Amino acid sequence: MVDKKYWWFFKGYDVRNNKVWSRSFKDCNLDELAKSNLTPLYLTNGKRIEDKARLIREAFIKNYTGAVDINYAVKANYCPQILDLIAILDLGADAVSPNEAILAEQRGVSRHKIMFTGTSVSKEDLEKLVKFGNYKIDIDSNSQLKKLGEHRDEWNIQGLHLSIRLNPNVGAGHNPDVITAGSKNEDGVPIKFGIEQNKIVDTFLVAREYGFYPDTLHIHIGSGWLGNDVDSFRIALQNTLDVMKELRKHDFDNLNLDVGRGPGIRYRESQKSFPFDTYAKVISEELNRSNVQINKLIVEPGRSLVGDSTILLTKVNTVEEKNGILHAYTDASMGTLIRPKLYHAYHEIINVSNPNGPLTVYAIDGNVCETGDTFTQDQPREIPEIREGDVLGILDTGAYGDVMSSPYCLRGRANIMMVHNGKLIQCAKGLEDLNQILHRFYVDTRLER
Ligand SMILES: Cc1ncc(COP(=O)(O)O)c(C=O)c1O
Asked: 417: how many CB neighbours lie within 10 A of its CB?
């Protein structure tokens, strides 16, 4: 019997006997689980990732008639066991560094389903990509193409199939810093990604002159946008299809179209879940209207696949009023989860030890020495009554959570576990200890006194 209904239940949780339970793990509730393991603890529910993959697939089956490849954006979360799941689900991988491509392949993603889309790509990066797995490369600058061309014979890559990234002029995202198209973001930061519309035909022609086969046009407008941004995506897509018509004049026909990703997740009660059906429909409509034939469509979900699969469990060690505000201090920090600090991002925070407690206003803070080290950046908020020793759950931390973490102030990076097929799997070696943090230093090298 569920005690009470909360808006976040749809992510796979229930509240019973004044405790929060994961529906995929019946053995113990999240309070017990956190108290019997090292915290802070990122706990991923594999079933939620499987469900999201199915939802995205079905939206395309229903609303789009052509072939679709789903490439998971590894940057969202490279946890090896998440990559195992991606391979089991038979998805491809979108890698933004050579190491992401290599790890995805090591965990079972087929080599031919991995594409690299980098920024600031060096000759060494390209050589690694070509030599390790001959992964498909998405060209982000003309300089990158030139480097490939100049080393074509040395690296034995004659006839290489390539993708080329277009800046489709219109971007969207949950924060200016994750908008990746247009000339500048709202804060005036120049956009560094892709090749501009007026240059891209030449890029295709130069690729052909080198004897390469550019067979894919790629765009990515930004990250974490929701239903109300679908119109911006539509305009970006129209611009892209115009470019495809231009390319057709030069016999670049029947290309693959990679629309990147960016669909967000419902972080707040007031938001709506991303409308995947509408998204797939918009792509269908625009392709039909433009009369451009494509070979296959590629999408690269990161956040929307793994974002709401994970809860960050953190213990409260201190509850104290300061300057008229109740602060609850936790064993996590901005080093564990930087999104609230970096993007002023909102994450729902629940009290898994006392979910039915009376609502009280708190600032939820971390354990490193920064004023900005708080998970309630925007403002203190109502949370069921918190007692010292309680465990809080920070929701929706599966994307850009642990992968952006740091051991700042020598606070170790978090413990990581995953529930898969009803079993609890240890993914990280507990909470990082001092030796693990110092692993990359020569600690035996001491300066002479
Ligand atoms: C090329 C590319 N594809 C996919 C993604 C994933 O975006 P998201 O996690 O918002 O789905 C990103 C993120 O910025 C990206 O740069």
From this structure: 22
User: What's the CA angle centered on 217, arms 71 and 209, to 5 degrees?
Assistant: 125
What is the total count of domains within the chain? 2
Is residue 11 in contact with ligand 1, taking CB distance under 6 Å? no
DSSP state, residue 283: H
**164-178, 189-203, 378-392 — which is least confidently predicted?**
164-178
Q: Which of 79, 369, 409, 427 is catalytic?
A: 369
The mean pLDDT of the chain is 96
Ligand 1 centre to CA of 348 (Å) is 22
Q: In this structure, what CATH number is given to the domain that contains residue 288?
A: 3.20.20.10
Q: Are residues 292 and 331 in the same domain?
A: no
pLDDT band at 175 (very low <50, low <70, confident <90, very high): confident
d(C-alpha 149, C-alpha 145), whole Å: 6
**In angstroms, what is the span from residue 221 Cα to ligand 1's centroid?**
9
Q: What is the pLDDT of residues 387-424, one digit of tens each?
A: 999 999 999 999 999 999 999 999 999 999 999 999 99
Same domain, 270 and 353: no
Ligand 1 atom 16: the closest Cα is on which residue? 220
Average pLDDT value for residue range 208-223: 95
Concerning whether 369 is annotated as a catalytic residue, the answer is yes
Q: What is the pTM (predicted TM-score) of this model?
A: 0.96
- CB distance 96 to 75 below 8 Å: yes
From 114, 117, 217, 220, the mutation candidate for ligand 1 (largest count of ligand atoms within 8 A of CB) is 220
In a domain, 347, yes or no: yes
d(CA 76, CA 230): 21
Residue of the nearest CA to atom 7 in ligand 1?
262
Helix (H) or strand (E) holding 434: helix 434-437
In tens, the pLDDT along 315-359 reads: 999 999 999 999 999 999 999 999 999 999 999 999 999 999 999
Domain assignment of residue 102, yes or no:
no
Q: How far apart are CA 392 and CA 376, in angstroms?
A: 13
**Beta carbon of 173 within 6 Å of any ligand 1 atom:** no
Answer whether 302 contacts ligand 1 (Cβ < 6 A): yes
Ligand 1 mean position, distance from CA 102 (Å) = 18
- Indicate the SS3 state at residue 163: strand
Choosing from 175, 193, 221, 223 the residue with most ligand 1 atoms within 8 A of its CB, the one to mutate for a pocket test is 223
- Give the pLDDT of residue 1: 76
Which residue, judged by its Cα, is nearest atom 2 of ligand 1? Answer: 260
**In a shared domain, residues 163 and 246:** yes
Q: Which of 301, 330, 346 is at the close of a domain?
A: 301
**Containing structural domain, residue 208:** 118-301
